[in-house]
Design a protein that fits this description.
The complex is a heterotrimer.
Chain A lengths: L7 H23 L3 H26 L3 H28 L11 H26 L5 H22 L3 H22 L5 H29 L13
Helix pairs in contact in A: 1-2, 1-5, 2-3, 2-6, 3-7, 4-5, 5-6, 6-7
Chain B lengths: L1 H21 L3 H19 L2 H4 L5 E3 L4 E3 L1 H28 L5 H17 L6 H19 L5 H36 L7 H7 L5 H19 L7 H8 L2 H29 L4 H22 L4 H22 L1 H33 L10 H4 L1 H14 L6 H14 L4 H27 L14 H19 L3 H13 L12
Antiparallel strand pairs in B: 1-2
Chain C lengths: L3 H32 L9 H10 L11 H16 L20 H21 L3 H32 L4 H10 L1 H4 L2 H17 L26 H27 L10 H28 L9 H19 L2
Helix pairs in contact in C: 1-9, 1-10, 2-9, 3-4, 3-9, 4-5, 5-8, 5-11, 6-9, 8-9, 8-11, 9-10
Chain lengths: ~230, ~500, ~325
């Protein structure tokens, strides 16, 4: 398996990128201004594109260069641009009513990372890969998923929820690049395009929310109960 | 031969979408959709008869049609046909004439995704198909552009997208587990995973399966991930609700069934099945509680869907020939019955111009024939003989009693009785209680809306009275193809 | 074998902290004033303040108890003890350096702060109470984070002595640039801001209601106040020393203890501190004043970074 037999330089490059992505996920968790959220997400997407390219370089998977370029273009440029347009149309610069304070969510996020580490080291030890980049990749993947769900739960703005979902996908992509770089090209490209369609749909839904419900905050979506 | 039929199933709705897009006339769109559904149904019916044993693979093993997939596609095709017939009469009543072509195009697209979902051989492509169903159906749920509809659609897309991203994580972990056995590059077909399963790492496989279960379980509507279901099913237009309940939930269930077969092949013990059983029981419990005190007629039907998906989950979890047979038979019966119930509810909603159960009174007197069919459907959906759901639920109960989770069978029986009482109580109120305010609003239900109800109840009765041996052996063959794993009495399989 | 030179160096470390502490404070205040386009009081102003205070009388409140008089002494003594444990001038352990490890050093620092908090309550004045309660509020979040940072440092070097950490970072650039170390630096930087009262929450004006830590010593005067001020300047110096010499810039310490080497390390020390002071002043002035309750946010971020650093050590 590629990730288990890496040269130390490659391992540290992967570790650095993975941990930096995790840190950016935390920046997203702790920010209240939607623009900061978006910038952190853009930076995270670029980092993941760089990771794709490095995996392709160290593992001799030339098709990963294509994936890296597509990630840069779609996840790193097009997606943030679409979301930026939605934000600008929405006139909502930040989360005004906070369900959970930013600091508390940071602490809960830290606990989530500890939990993810526990699960990942358990699996890593089982597989015999303990102590390599594999455990780190699993940890970052699982913790970004947990942080994404945390963002979905404690944020009430529609854009924050969309970005939370995208962080989920980012985490999976990050883990997939390190753990299974040989995943068929077709599947990866289709998932990438699928993401684009998802964001387009979300944009349309946000527009509907604005026109018919009058606000994009889920605090106002309380009509259906029981 | 099978390939030709499958191609017809896929091409018919696609052609309908294209043609609707070109000619944008509402009536023509309705007819094109209906035609597509008839073609799809006609192509879907023969496939289970001729599919034989092995999966027929096409497009370089990306598409494979086996017995299980053929059955689920048949269920979806049936619901598509019934809902299309109903939609012709129903959608005229909604009053958005200019947007009807959009509706029918989306409708055909949604049906298309549920039809080809079970045919996907590659686990990654299957995930993409499920994702596509979510995206298309969101806009169908939001079709009416009311605040409640948008709220329901938003909740639907957020909850389900979050859920199936968990399924994606599970899929990636499955791929990883397989890559440690099969090498870094391989086609992630169900057969390849099952083949590599015995050598996969246990704890990784268990984690991956649980993630996939929770992820696709969100799509199926198992509690506690069901929160989107009542809103989406009740706020969408009625044909959409029927398709959601009857076709989509089954398509998501097939993913769980296939992954369960992989987990069985790896012999990870009884945790996967027990989790599935626990989720099924919990769904039944939640459904019971919410059916008892329900006020909206379509939400009532939606919670009934949660209940039946719980029953199917129990059947799949119990496993063995009985369990799988019961679950699959239940799928078809539930699709027929739920469509019937939704059609009746939609017609009543339009006639009485209300969504609340309390405001619908004296149905039997106002609509004698339709009301009788609807009442028969209500009796059927709560699991009473001689309808089909009774047969399948009894089979699942029997399957459960043979396993170590026999307690689940008892709980299921008790909860089904409770649901019977609660559900039919609502119908008693609607049929026999006098109205609080004397009003003589009486709408007219068009023939387009009554015919599908007849078309649903007759097979339902037939399937309940007569379960042919060929169908039994068909299910047995499917159970065998899935590896025949089950929760055996006294320990792990 | 303990040589006289080692003992002299040890004493010299304590003297350096005592004598150069006010200089560091002066540099920081001067920088801040210059950045804000004022003229600044000059970098030697704290010395003049201390001199003035030592020549004044002690005016004690009637409600003060023995704690009031003991606290300045205890605080000053604590601050004199810590330089013995950490690498200030030399990068090899001097005699008595293993008297306490990193956690021990942290304990003594906190002891001094704790006594001052008690003294703030002792005088039963309102502003003392506010100052003490606010200081404790911040400490509740800051102390566990500080412990976590120390745990992270310990896990990084697999030893509890700051000298071992210093050697590790100098000898292995891989350890220096590892995510663990970078996160620890970031976490400690936030804690540095908190402990030296430079969070963008404090106010530069001397209005009592805005004070966080200074409110505790409002009732002090004369030499007692001088001792307390000096102790806080020394604490600042010590924290900067730990930050620079152990974590961020562990180079330029004396290797053999010659006079020239020691002189060089003192100059290098002041240069390093100037760099860090620049960073602190930049952070302090570019961020506008926040509400007091937002103190949780940088501390939560610091906690998070410490947890990530610890996780980084677990991942090889």
């Amino acid at each position: 398996m590629l990730a288990a037999h890496l040269s130390p330089l490659a391992a540290s490059v992967f570790s650095l990128i993975a941990i930096a992505s995790l840190l950016l996920a935390f920046v997203m968790l702790g920010s209240r201004w939607l623009r900061h959220y978006l910038y952190a997400f853009t930076a995270e997407s670029w980092l993941i594109g760089i990771l794709s390219a490095s995996v392709g370089y160290y593992g001799n998977y030339p098709e990963l260069y294509l994936i890296a370029i597509l990630t840069f273009l779609f996840r790193g440029c097009l997606l943030p641009y679409l979301i930026f347009r939605i934000i600008r149309r929405m006139h909502v610069p930040r989360e005004v009513h906070v369900i959970l304070q930013a600091s508390s969510s940071l602490v809960i996020g830290a606990l989530a990372v500890v939990f993810a580490l526990g699960v990942a080291s358990q699996i890593g030890a089982d597989l015999g890969f303990g102590g390599t980049v594999v455990v780190l990749a699993l940890t970052v993947m699982l913790s970004m998923k947990l942080i994404g769900f945390l963002m979905l739960t404690v944020r009430h703005e529609a854009i924050s929820q969309i970005l939370g979902l995208l962080v989920l996908e980012n985490g999976i992509f990050l883990g997939a690049q390190i753990l299974v770089p040989g995943m068929p090209l077709l599947i990866e490209i289709v998932i990438l395009f699928d993401l684009l369609i998802v964001v387009a749909c979300f944009g349309l839904m946000v527009q509907y929310l604005m026109t018919h419900v009058g606000s994009t905050s889920s605090l106002h979506l309380r009509r259906l109960v029981g | 031969m099978v390939g030709a039929f499958a191609l017809a199933i896929v091409l018919a709705p696609s052609a309908a979408i294209v043609l609707i897009g070109i000619t944008r006339r509402p009536n023509l769109a309705a007819w094109l959709n209906l035609l597509a559904s008839i073609v799809a149904f006609a192509a879907a019916v023969p496939i289970p008869f001729i599919v034989g044993t092995g999966p027929h693979e096409y497009l370089g093993s990306y598409v494979a049609i086996d017995a299980l997939g053929a059955w689920v596609t048949l269920c979806s095709a049936v619901v598509y046909l019934l809902a299309s017939i109903y939609a012709v009469g129903y959608m005229r009543l909604l009053g958005h004439e200019d947007r009807l072509p959009v509706f029918y195009a989306l409708f055909a697209g949604f049906a298309l995704t549920t039809l080809f979902g079970p045919m996907m051989n590659n686990a990654g492509l299957y995930w993409i198909a499920i994702e596509l169903t979510t995206l298309v159906s969101t806009f169908l749920v939001a079709y009416e552009h009311e605040a409640e509809s948008i709220e329901a659609a938003w909740k639907y897309i957020i909850v389900v997208s979050g859920g199936i991203s968990l399924a994606l994580l599970g899929t990636v972990l499955f791929y990883w587990a397989g890559s440690l056995v099969l090498g870094p590059k391989y086609d992630m077909t169900w057969a390849a995973l099952t083949h590599a399963a015995p050598q996969m790492n246990r704890s990784l496989l268990l984690l991956a399966f649980l993630l996939v279960l929770i992820g696709y379980g969100t799509k199926v509507g198992l509690a506690p991930m069901h929160t989107w279901l009542p809103d989406a099913h009740s706020e969408g237009p009625t044909p959409v609700s029927a398709l959601l309940s009857g076709a989509l939930l089954n398509t998501a269930m097939i993913g769980i069934i296939r992954y369960l077969a992989v987990a069985d092949a790896a012999k990870v013990g009884s945790v996967p099945r027990l989790t599935l059983v626990a989720l099924g029981v919990f769904s039944l419990l939640i459904a019971t509680l919410f059916i008892m005190r329900q006020e909206g007629i379509k939400r009532l039907m939606a919670y009934s869907s949660v209940e039946h998906m719980g029953v199917i989950a129990l059947g799949v979890g119990f496993g063995g020939v009985l369990g799988v047979a019961g679950a699959l038979y239940h799928m078809l019966n539930h699709s027929l019955n739920k469509s019937l119930m939704f059609f009746g509810a939609g017609s009543m909603m339009r006639s009485y111009e209300t969504k609340e159960i309390n405001a619908i009174r004296l149905v039997g007197r106002r609509f004698p024939v339709t009301g009788a069919i609807w009442l028969a459907g209500a009796v059927a959906i709560t699991g009473a003989p001689p309808f089909g759901l009774f047969a399948s639920e009894l089979t699942i109960l029997r399957a459960g009693l043979q396993t170590i989770a026999a307690w689940a069978s008892f709980v299921m029986a008790v909860l089904l009785i409770a649901i019977f009482i609660g559900f039919l109580n609502h119908f008693r109120c609607m049929y026999y209680e006098p109205p609080e305010r004397g009003d003589e609003r009486r709408g007219h239900i068009s023939a387009w809306c009554i015919v599908p109800m007849w078309l649903a109840i007759i097979p339902l009765l037939a399937l309940g009275l007569w379960w042919p041996q060929e169908v039994w052996s068909y299910f047995g063959q499917i159970a065998h193809a899935l590896g025949g794993g089950a929760l055996v009495a006294g320990g792990a399989p | 074998m303990i040589t006289t030179r080692d003992i002299i160096l040890q004493a010299l470390q304590v003297l350096t902290v005592i004598c150069l502490g006010p200089l560091l404070q002066g540099i920081i205040v001067q920088f801040e004033e210059r950045v804000q386009r004022g003229q600044g009081p000059g970098i030697f102003q704290p010395y003049r303040d201390l001199w003035k205070l030592f020549h004044k009388d002690v005016v004690a409140p009637e409600t003060a108890s023995w704690l009031y008089f003991v606290t300045p002494v205890v605080a000053f003594t604590c601050m004199m003890t810590v330089p013995i444990l950490i690498p200030v001038l030399t990068n090899y352990p001097l005699p008595l350096s293993d008297m306490g490890d990193i956690l021990g050093g942290g304990l003594i620092l906190t002891l001094g702060s704790f006594m001052i908090t008690l003294a703030g309550l002792d005088t039963t004045s309102a502003y003392g109470g506010i100052g003490s309660s606010r200081a404790v509020m911040v400490a509740i979040l800051a102390e566990p984070t500080l412990i976590l940072v120390f745990v992270g440092i310990t896990l990084l070097a697999k030893a509890m002595l700051p000298f071992v950490v210093n050697h590790l970072l100098v000898q292995q650039p891989a350890a220096y640039w590892s995510p663990t170390h970078l996160f620890l630096v970031a976490a400690f930087f936030v804690l540095l801001l908190v402990e030296t009262d430079r969070l963008p929450i404090h106010s530069n004006t001397h209005i009592e209601v805005y004070m966080i830590e200074e409110g505790r010593i409002l009732e002090y005067s004369g030499p007692l106040l001088a001792l307390l001020r000096w102790a806080s300047m020394m604490k600042q110096f010590i924290l900067y020393t730990i930050f620079c010499n152990v974590l961020l810039l562990p180079w330029a310490l004396s290797y053999q203890g010659t006079a020239l080497g020691v002189l060089g390390s003192v100059i290098a020390l002041m240069l390093k501190f100037t760099l860090v002071a620049c960073a602190v002043v930049v952070v302090d002035t570019t961020q506008s004043r926040l509400r007091f309750y937002r103190y949780q946010e940088p501390l939560a971020a610091s906690f998070l970074l410490a947890v990530l650093a610890i996780i980084g050590t677990q991942l090889g």
